[in-house]
Design a protein that fits this description.
The protein folds into three domains: about 220 residues, 2-enoyl-CoA Hydratase, Chain A, domain 1 (Alpha-Beta Complex), CATH 3.90.226; about 130 residues, no CATH class; about 60 residues, Beta Barrel (OB fold (Dihydrolipoamide Acetyltransferase, E2P)). It is about 50% helix and about 20% strand.
Length: about 425
Amino acid sequence: MRPERRLLALLVLLLAIPGHVAAEETAAVHILKVAAPIGPGVAGFVADALEAADREKAACIVIQLDTPGGLAESMRQIVTKILATRTPVIVFVAPSGARAASAGVMITMAADIAAMAPGTNIGAAHPVGAGGKDIDETMSEKVVNDMVAQARSVAQQRGRNADWVEEAIRDSVSITETEALRENVIDLVADDLDALLTLLDGRNVKGKGTLALKDAPRKMVAEGLRTKVLRAISDPNIAFILFLIGAAGLYFELSHPGAIFPGVIGGLCLILAIYAFQVLPVNFVGILLMVLAVIFFILEIKVTSYGMLSVAGTIALFLGGLMLFKESDYGIRVSLGVLVPAVGAVSVFFAVVAGLAFKAQVAGARTGLSGMIGEIGIVKQAIDPEGKVAVHGELWKARADVALAAGQTVRVVAVDGLTMTVEATDSKA
């Protein structure tokens, strides 16, 4: 073989190697951790992760779950996305001490493979109404029946115990990982993530092939900026604080027109708060109480109440924050550790601003010609009946009822155009 042909063959071989290596590259295992109440932010995070797993042809995606539950609508979004995902989905309730309660039960049932770590539990899926109140009997029956129908359908699709899922929804039963395995609620128990992937290697997933995880690389899925912002806004404590900042900013702008910056910040915060209230289970009585509190603070400027309106506003603001979201085990409520200092700080702010506005209203003019009345000056040119006086370093034409000598200290009693009317004081410069 000629040297040039040997060189060409070697070149072809080298070019073929990278393609061969790429073809043999093992698909990655995508891993994301959900340790929070189920809300719009979490739903968006999980949906984006599932789409990325499909797009990147991941070997599987593991959702490590620890949640007290959350919003039904967000849960349904996650379940729907899991069922439609081409990539094998594993829900792993971990670490030890974690739970999959309420909405977490449905998410676990929707997984292709459901697993739990030792010392975990699952169950208590009975729906709870918004506004801190139990659902009335008629509505409760409708909601429960709807959730039961969905839960049984998902459980049967995955080959799991549909009767237990119904019991978890109707009677709020909760079981440990060993009981869940025995009752065919989950597929396996694993000590940790490493043990889980070892047990899953070579396991067949219905409709999605056999898992090859022995040498698969791992990719931790981190939250993007959009997801972080959305989840932050959807936090009930953040939503409450945004409302307070928004109300305070607009109040300051209305009481001190032209400040601009407080009004802009206040408007933005109110818009974000309104968005959060749309996706959270809001009790509108709580919102009305907070609006009433702002009205009380505004009236404090107009009405002499000797602080009673401010006290009423503070009480209304506290009760509004307390009643703003439902009281449940889902964590969808304003923490007292946030509520008390926030209400205190905002109440002081409103009181201070109201006080400044009130003083500005009752105080006399401080600028312009009318603001010169009462000021002290010195006669620079004898007044008889007219002369010159210096007031605030400026020389003014002046007149007086009596003759005044140069150097005499005078007080301004009136201003007519550019002429001052002055009177003598008892002192002399």
